[in-house]
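Much of what follows relies on a compact textual record of a protein's fold. A complete example follows; check for yourself that the lines match position by position.
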Amino acid sequence: MSDIAKCPKCLQHFDNTIAVSNCPKCGARIDGANLSNETFANSTVQASAEEIAQIDSYLGLSILSVFLCCPLGIIALIFSILTLNDKKRGDYSAAISHSALARNLMIASLVLGGISFALRFLGQFSR
């Protein structure tokens, strides 16, 4: 079961398994008294089309990361595609989770790929 909370001000859904003191969307102060918990039997959270459309899949940057650091880039690309599929199905919590994984893997791939290219470039001039 996943624990999903909803901000009382903007009604944004977010993961409540981590300690949250402010709403990630509107910044409203959230304490135990103001937190509206909604526990669902499965991890599928239905959200409005507008909320789902705001979730970024990072598809373009994931494709770029494939060329810089292939192993991590491919995994980032897979999670980007999973995010798109979750958005089409309307599965808010899975889309958020897959989007975050795609972003983190894409950033790691871009950083490692950039360092790799920099070292190769500097290595050519040290000969």
The chain is about 55% helix and 10% strand. Confidence is low (pLDDT under 50) at residues 33-43. Residues 3 and 18 are 10 Å apart (CA to CA). The radius of gyration is 19 Å.
